[in-house]
UniProtKB/TrEMBL annotation, chain A:
Protein name per the record: Sugar ABC transporter permease
Membrane topology classification: Multi-pass membrane protein
Membrane-spanning residues: 26-45, 57-76, 106-129, 136-160, 172-194, 222-245, 257-275, 282-301, 307-325
Positions of the UniProt region annotated as Disordered: 1-23
InterPro entries registered for this protein in UniProt: ABC_transp_permease (IPR001851)
CDD domains membership: TM_PBP1_transp_AraH_like
Keyword ATP-binding tagged: no
Domain of life assignment: Bacteria
GO terms of molecular function: transmembrane transporter activity
Lineage of the organism: Bacteria, Bacillati, Actinomycetota, Actinomycetes, Micromonosporales
Keywords for this protein: Cell inner membrane, Cell membrane, Membrane, Transmembrane, Transmembrane helix, Transport
Organism: Catellatospora coxensis
Main location: membrane
From TrEMBL, chain B:
Name used for this protein in its record: Sugar ABC transporter permease
Chief place where the protein resides: membrane
Transmembrane segments: 23-40, 52-71, 77-96, 103-128, 134-152, 172-192, 224-247, 253-271, 278-296, 302-322
GO molecular function: transmembrane transporter activity
UniProtKB/TrEMBL annotation, chain C:
Coiled coil: none
Protein name: ABC transporter ATP-binding protein
Domain ABC transporter: 18-259, 275-517
GO molecular function: ATP binding; ATP hydrolysis activity
Entries under Pfam families matching the protein: ABC_tran (PF00005)
InterPro entries: AAA+_ATPase (IPR003593), ABC_carbohydrate_import_ATPase (IPR050107), ABC_transporter-like_ATP-bd (IPR003439), ABC_transporter-like_CS (IPR017871), P-loop_NTPase (IPR027417)
Natural source organism: Catellatospora coxensis
Record keywords, A-Z: ATP-binding, Nucleotide-binding, Repeat, Transport
PANTHER family: CARBOHYDRATE TRANSPORT ATP-BINDING PROTEIN MG119-RELATED, GALACTOFURANOSE TRANSPORTER ATP-BINDING PROTEIN YTFR
SMART domains attached to this UniProt entry: AAA
């Protein structure tokens, strides 16, 4: 075995100064600042808003959105997009509702596993067939919706005995909704795994500059497939939360969560061009979106404006976070 | 380096098999038609063929619009939202049960112009804010749906305008007026594509945008104009759906965005831009309609329609990408 | 035999069609143009020669408004002009046929010729195809081309497309109302020899109603077709030669200049290569753009592959790193057969690759020095599956010091470093694992200034001394000769000859050039 040792580095480590600049720190906190501003504004508009009850309601509403956005954030960090999450979540609610009577407690891990597998299949299609991710997932969205319609017979599937998923609808310490706690746990867990392993570098490198990442020997393809897989699993988990709250599954139940989830990701400041961003940002973004949703009626705006707001938010937030230097020709 | 050489390589093989690609969709259409005709007696009945053509009308108009956007290499997901907004607009402006308006054709024109304005919005977000088109149009679609919901205001406007209603019912030479409108749209679209600077530049932008810039062409106005043109087609599509349903619905455009992309892609328009055209898309529309109608006739659940479209899109795009694959090419 | 012409004062005779005085352009870390002077007389074909990195392409870009110079003046027919865009340049009668062909492939030849200036062919946004055809035909007739104006551009041959480009560039005549200046940037690199003859006839014909600037790295071509040649070196014009009777050798000497005896390539540090079993052994490797490549590199040896653009050497290099697919042949490393389906396999085999496009393929700009350095050899910074921050910090800091990388800290985004330091980080990426056996260096000094180049050369010597085998695609012929122990010359996808290149017995660049073209 003649493994040559190129050069022996000098033994003494030099100490380097580190840390981002103050300006960077500030922009990093933008979603948090927006969040605080929103809470303050809503409190002024309605002093009752800052009560345990309404905050609990916000947390509970936000939970599925957080999980959905967190998973899709991984795909966005890799430079792609997953438009199928909401349709996948809808399909999963149907599957869960159908399987609960037969599988009982096993139904939850089973549907999450299926959702993860579906995500992975989309990832493989994207990587192997070299189809842009938005097309793969747009096609996936259409296919999954069709499957959900067929499987459910285009109707709501009631859950008679919801005891295996009822725990998600409980409250921790009387105030903290279990679903919100689990959502936080999911975000924290994924973020932690990324941080302590090389995955963080791999994902960022893939998102910032895929060709450089590939030439540095990064497993770009696996990273992308993994991101889609986790995104699918998260969509599955969000579906479990929805079923636990609504005691039923429906083929279009989660469809209206796509725009809020995308809005949450971009409002958090994760760049649609890839690389820059984090799950924590999407967490903050999900709260911002939820507060807007809950807050509109409080300040007396008809809820029809919700959609318009999502549209505006998506366009403006993407424009603000986009890495203009990276894209010379925008299609 | 990789990127440019990839482009050069793809240009070199551009023409190879082009004849096959152009001939492919029509041949597939004929084959598919024959298969279904053999499998199902109902399918080959005159009434069913009329049905297919009539059902294709709205999709054909929407696809006309989206084809121009796809030719540029952009994408447009805003059809559903724009159609919803224009459907509500037209149903509130022509004779209806919600108010005393009776503007007739002027109301229809306003709805088309509104669609045009939404398209403009997408285009401006693309060229001024540099938001990628799929994101910009996703946002605009949401805005359109929101506007439609506002106008809907909880009460469904049923139209009583005789003329608009007749579009879906009256027939000329065995085909509904809507079908003739769609045919006119295809003709107009083809003329635009063939004989106007807007159409040719849209085509060229998809072929090599940087060359246009180098030649001193300002591409931004053309991009906005293409999105506006597409928006106008969606607006008309919304009007046509309203005529079919006899009422203005927020969901008027549901699914049309994706079906239109499917039709265009199947017809031979590349998502990377620079290839295909209105006539290709027209073939694609009929192909999609024959397929979905035929599947229903042979006993497949109509719920599968979206699934079939999804599979077709992925397969068609993958097939188009295969000859251009390179190892270190970046696909987002 | 001719002597470099004395620079004449420009007051005599007619005003030059184009004149450049003291043009300067800085890029971060590099002075691309350092006071270039250039005169193009009317109805003259001027050759522009220079090594890679001599500033040719920056100069051309400045002439067509794609680059704004930091200092200096451009005069068109005696009047000073500021060129802000290609359109600006066209208005002043300067047009360029780009190296990467700049036609819209899916439009007709006629549309391409008239693109951006359709005039009467488009009225109120509506095409009048008959007028368009006629106008394009006029342009094509002018250069005697028989192409059908309504043929789709991507159905034409490369040579025909070039004719379309020339016809397109000639349209600027109508804009400026003067004989135009046509710049041809490496027009021959994609053409067959017969097509080149046609092109040259075309260029001579152009001289009747235009001035031409002809750029090529093939000196024989430059001498063949041009009236006069200006030679660039390190961003300066170092001389002019009247081509009548001149020989390539002379031009080449001017392009290279005197290297001096400052041991720029650290040749004293070169170590003799032990003639044992080769580290890398390639037999019969074939791919899309190269055939039947045999290549041996011993441990500690630096082997350079030289060849012109399109010789296939870049693809060979990329094939050795699992990027470019191969169709036949085998690669052995220390006697063991390798299969390289992807870059991961190559990395695992102890192969490292420094790509030519540092900013796009070499580094991940927004990520930190530390992350860029440890992107490949994860084991070096991890404990088990986890990143060990202290281990990583220690490792990175040691290598920052070892390679004297000037950076504010290990967490600084790499894009804030100078080019040379960026390149050192990219190199360090392969070294931190301590298991590198073969380095593939694709233009490792591209875009670096002299000091940074020298440091990279020193590093290459040290690596060779420690037993790393190196394949070098030099930025210039001179670099390849200076650094390599052995040189392989590639031409048209094949290795045509192999030249030993020991210290004290270096081959002359001209002998190599002969084999390359």
């Amino acid at each position: 075995m003649s493994t040559p040792v190129a050069m022996q580095p000098v033994a003494e480590p030099a100490t380097g100064r580190t840390g981002p600049r103050p300006a960077q720190r500030l922009t990093g906190f933008m979603p948090l600042i927006a969040l605080v501003a929103l809470v303050a504004a809503l409190t002024i508009a309605d002093p009752d808003f800052l009560t345990a009850r309404s905050l609990t309601a916000v947390a509970r509403t936000a939970a599925p959105l957080i999980v959905l956005a967190a998973g899709a954030t991984l795909v966005v960090l890799c430079g792609g997009i997953d438009l199928s999450i909401a349709a996948l979540a809808s399909l999963t609610t149907v599957l869960l509702a159908l399987w609960l009577p037969h599988l009982g407690g096993l139904a939850t891990p089973a549907v999450i596993g299926v959702a993860a597998a579906i995500g992975a299949v989309q990832g493989v299609a994207h990587v192997l067939l070299r189809i842009p991710s938005f097309i793969v997932t747009l096609g996936g969205m259409s296919i999954l919706s069709a499957v959900a319609l067929v499987v459910s017979g285009a109707g709501t599937v009631r859950v008679v005995d919801d005891s295996p998923v009822a725990w998600l609808d409980l409250y921790l310490a009387g105030y903290v909704p279990m679903s919100a706690a689990m959502a936080l746990l999911v975000v924290a867990l994924i973020a932690l795994v990324l941080k302590v392993t090389p995955l963080q570098s791999w994902i960022s490198a893939t998102g910032y500059s895929e060709s450089a990442a590939r030439l540095a020997g990064t497993p770009v393809d696996l990273v992308k497939i993994g991101a889609f897989c986790v995104s699918g699993a998260c969509a599955g988990f969000a579906a479990v939360m929805l079923v636990s709250r609504q005691f039923s599954g429906g083929p279009t139940m989660a469809d209206n969560l796509l725009l809020p989830a995308v809005a949450a990701i971009v409002v958090g400041g994760t760049a649609i061009t890839g690389g820059h961003g984090s799950l924590w940002r999407s967490l903050a973004g999900a709260f911002v979106v939820t507060l807007l949703r809950v807050g509109l009626p409080i300040v007396g705006v008809p809820s029809a404006y919700e959609q318009i707001l999502y549209g505006v938010i998506i366009v403006v937030a993407v424009a603000l976070t986009l890495d203009w230097s990276k894209v010379s020709i925008i299609k | 380096m990789t990127v440019t050489s990839g482009v050069a390589a793809s240009r070199r093989i551009f023409r190879r098999g082009a004849a096959f690609r152009d001939a492919g969709p029509p041949v597939a259409l004929v084959v598919l038609f024959l298969i279904f005709a053999a499998l199902s007696p109902q399918f080959r009945s005159i009434e069913n063929v009329q049905n297919i053509v009539d059902a294709a009308a709205v999709l054909a108009v929407v696809t006309c619009g989206i084809t121009f956007v796809l030719m540029m290499g952009s994408i447009d997901l805003s059809a559903a939202g724009v159609m919803g907004a224009s459907a509500l607009t037209v149903s509130l402006l022509v004779a209806n049960n919600r108010n005393d308006n009776d503007f007739g054709l002027a109301g229809i024109a306003v709805a088309v112009v509104l669609g045009c304005a939404f398209g403009c919005l997408s285009g401006l977000a693309l060229v001024l804010l540099k938001v990628p088109s799929f994101m910009a149009t996703l946002g605009v679609s949401a805005i359109g749906l929101g506007v439609a919901t506002l106008m809907f205001a909880g009460v469904q406007p049923n139209i009583t305008d005789a003329m608009l209603k007749s579009w879906a019912i009256e027939r000329f030479l065995g085909l509904s007026y809507l079908t003739w409108i769609a045919a006119a749209c295809i003709l107009v679209g083809w003329l635009i594509q063939r004989y106007t600077r807007l159409g040719r530049y849209a085509f060229a932008i998809g072929g090599a945008e940087e060359v246009l810039t180098l030649s001193g062409v300002k591409v931004k106005p053309y991009k906005v104009a293409v999105f506006a043109l597409a928006g106008a087609f969606y607006g008309l599509g919304g009007v046509m759906v309203t005529s079919q349903l006899g009422a203005g619905l927020v969901q008027a455009g549901n699914g049309y965005d994706f079906s239109a992309i499917t039709a265009a892609v199947v017809g031979g328009t590349l998502l990377t831009g620079g290839r295909g055209g209105i006539l290709h898309s027209a073939v694609g529309v009929v192909l999609v309609m024959v397929l979905t109608n035929g599947l229903v006739q042979v006993g497949v659940s109509p719920y599968w329609q979206g699934g079939v479209e999804g599979l077709i899109v992925v397969a068609a795009v993958a097939a188009a990408v295969i000859p251009q694959r390179r190892r270190n090419q970046v696909v987002k | 035999m001719s002597v470099p012409a004395e620079r004449e004062p420009t007051t005599s005779a007619p005003v030059p069609a184009l004149e450049v005085r003291g043009l300067v352009k800085h890029y971060p870390g590099v002075k691309a143009l350092d006071g270039v002077d250039l005169v193009v007389h009317q109805h003259e074909v001027l050759g522009l020669a220079g090594e890679n990195g001599a500033g040719k392409s920056t100069l051309l870009k400045a002439l067509v408004g794609l680059v704004t110079p930091d200092a200096g003046e451009i005069y068109v027919r005696g009047g000073a002009v500021k060129l802000r865009s290609v359109v600006d340049a066209a208005d002043h009668g300067i047009g360029m046929v780009f190296q990467e062909q700049s036609l819209v492939p899916n439009l007709t030849a006629a549309e391409n010729i008239l693109l951006g200036g359709e005039g009467p062919a488009v009225r109120r946004g509506v095409y009048r195809w008959d007028v368009m055809r006629r106008l394009a035909q006029e342009q094509l007739d002018k250069i005697g081309s028989k192409i059908d104006p309504l043929a789709r551009t991507d159905s034409l041959s490369f040579a025909d497309r070039q004719m379309v480009e020339i016809a397109k560039v000639l349209r600027i005549e109508q804009r400026s109302q003067h004989p135009p200046v046509i710049i041809l940037d490496e027009p021959t690199s994609v053409l067959e020899s017969k097509e080149i003859e046609t092109l040259f006839a075309q260029i001579r014909r152009l001289r009747e109603f235009a001035s031409v600037v002809f750029v090529s790295h093939r000196l024989d071509e430059v001498l063949d077709v041009c009236d006069r040649v200006t030679v660039l070196r390190s961003g300066q014009s170092v001389g002019e030669v009247a081509t009548a009777g001149a020989v390539p050798r002379e031009l080449h000497r001017m392009m290279i200049g005197s290297t001096g005896s400052d041991d720029h390539y650290h040749e004293n540090a070169a170590t003799p290569v032990a003639a044992e079993q080769p580290r890398l052994s390639v037999r019969g490797l074939s791919g899309k753009s190269f055939q039947d490549i045999d290549l041996d590199v011993a441990a500690g040896e630096i082997v350079a592959i030289v060849g012109v653009h399109g010789s296939g050497r870049e693809d060979v290099c990329r094939a050795l790193f699992g990027i470019e697919p191969t169709t036949a042949g085998e690669i052995r490393m220390d006697g063991k057969k390798l299969s390289l389906p992807n870059t991961r396999a190559a990395c695992a085999a102890g192969i490292g690759y420094v790509p030519a496009e540092r900013k796009i393929e070499g580094m991940v700009g927004p990520m930190s020095v530390a992350e860029n350095m440890t992107l490949t050899k994860q084991k070096a910074r991890c404990a088990g599956p986890f990143v060990a921050p202290k281990k990583q910090a220690g490792l990175v800091d040691r290598w920052i010091e070892r390679l004297s990388i000037r950076t504010p800290g290990r967490d600084t985004p790499i894009q804030r470093l100078s080019g040379g330091n960026q390149q050192k980080v990219v190199l360090a990426r392969w070294l931190v694992g301590g298991d590198i056996r073969l380095l593939l260096l694709d233009h490792p000094t591209r875009g670096l200034d002299i000091g940074a180049r020298s440091e990279v050369y020193r590093l290459m010597r040290e690596l060779a001394a420690s037993g790393v085998a190196t394949v070098l695609l030099g930025d210039s012929l001179e670099e390849a000769i200076g650094m390599a122990d052995r040189i392989l010359v590639m031409n048209d996808g094949r290795v045509v000859t192999e030249v030993a290149c020991p210290n004290g017995g270096k081959p002359s660049p001209l002998d190599l050039v002969k084999e390359m073209v």
